[in-house]
Amino acid sequence: MKLPFHQVDSFADRPFEGNQAAVVLLEDWLPDEILQSIAAENNLPETAFVVPRGDDWELRWFTPEVEVDLCGHGTLAAAFALFLEGLAQGREVVFESPRSGTLRVLRHDGRHWLDFPMRPLKEVPIDPILKKALGVEPLWCGRARDLIVLLESEEQVRSLRPDFELLKKLDVVGVCPTAVGDDCDFVCRFFAPKIGVPEDAVTGSVFCSLLPYWGEKLGKERLHARQLSRRGGTIVGEIHGKRVHIGGHAVDVIRGEMHLRLDG
Fold first, then answer.
1. What domains appear along the chain, each with residue ranges and CATH number?
2. Which of 17, 46, 154, 199 is flagged as catalytic?
3. Burial 130-164 (b: 16+ CB within 10 A, else e)
């Protein structure tokens, strides 16, 4: 079996920046254990699988260890690959995901814009394990799917050297320290060792929470952010009612075919 394959750098203006995702184009779904094995073989932060359904596409995302409910950079990469292959027409791709419903990606103004559901934060107590794992005193913590941790400054976010084994003990998918940016509205990092991603390069899904939080705090509906991972990435975000629009560029780095033998 030959499967068309792309490796894309999402939220990047040039190769080797932003966040890496594999995109595998399927005619129909393979068994879940095969999808997970492909993601483990790729050993990238996410592998996105897409299957055509009429004019739209079904979409799922896997880390090397687990399937996830929502992935921003994997969605951007999937749409980018479909446009690149000429499989998506016009300016919009519509995805149906089993865990996050309908997701749209629009090409506009030189960017790909993700239309994602907002995930408002609920304030939670600061866990002593979190303080020990990060080695700093958070100013505030809020939780949706992920734990958002407000810190004093961009430099404090940049200089974190977390204890990943301690972070695994927290009952959240990911931990996202954030602060006001020096040259942008805000900065962040994202740690998810529990799902096999110690530090994610650029995490589109967490902006479903970051954008409404910082939008209210700064009194803005359009925000510029920078994720301070080693690779780094830039995101532009807009708030639209109970949805967020997350904009970025993408670069095609590798393309080819995956060769699978499923007959043993």
1. 2-117+248-259 (3.10.310.10), 122-240 (3.10.310.10)
2. 46
3. beebbebebeebbbbebbbbbbeebebbeebebee
